[in-house]
Structures are given as structure tokens and as C-alpha cells.
Design brief:
Strands 2, 4, 5, 6, 9, 10 and 11 form a 7-stranded mixed β-sheet that branches. A 4-stranded antiparallel β-sheet has the order 1-3-8-7, with no helix packed on it. It is globular and about 45 Å long. It contains no helices and 11 strands. Strand 7 and strand 8 form a beta hairpin. By secondary structure, it is mainly β.
Amino acid sequence: QVQLVESGGGLVQAGGSLKISCAASGRTFSDYALGWFRQAPGKEREFVAAISWSGGRTYLADSVKGRFTIARDNTKNTGFLYMNSLKPEDTAVYYCAAVFRSGSPFGTYYDTARKYDYWGQGTQVTVSS
């Protein structure tokens, strides 16, 4: 069992940077892999980034590769998404999600929203033109 709370969203100019956080509470944080998804108005939820239980594996969507970085600090029960070179098309509500470890490799399902067990409330990121 885990509860997730995102924070750090806001309004930034195109080309700017923003860090959003995912604070977790409940069961052992390191037992959960983390993912970030986003959803813009009128669009389907899409995968952004994911990180394995220990942080040893990271995954990024092609649309953000080279601009975003995902990280976690298990000693602080917090995940992070560092967003650089932001574009207006990055505007969306960003959701943090967690999935309990299983026998299946995380690399086979990291980008599949329905596989995640817990979700935060989301934080709005708006990038102005």
C-alpha cells in the first residue's frame, strides 16, 4: 500500500525547466517502481518516464528523451521528474504512479498505465509559447 502526492507543477516559459516531485507514504518505497504519465485536454494519457525499484533502470518516452530525466531517492521516499527545454506541447497534467514489484521484468510493462497499482492526484504543468 502506498499513497502518492505530486507537487512542483506550474507555469513556465518555453525553453525553461521545472522539477516535479512525487512524495510517497505507506509501505516500503523501494518495493515500488515509479512511472510518470501525462494527459492534455482532449488527448489520451501517455507515458512519459519510469524508473525501477532501485533506480538502476530508467525509461523515457521518445517525445521527452534528451530533455527529461527521472530519478528517485528511496531514503526520502520521493521520486522526481526533471524537465528541461520545455515546449508548449508538454503542457498537461502530470501523474505519478507506482507499481509493486513482481516476478515479471519491469522493462516489459513500464509504459502501460493499467499495470500501475497506485496513482497520485496529478500536478498541472503549463508551458507558455
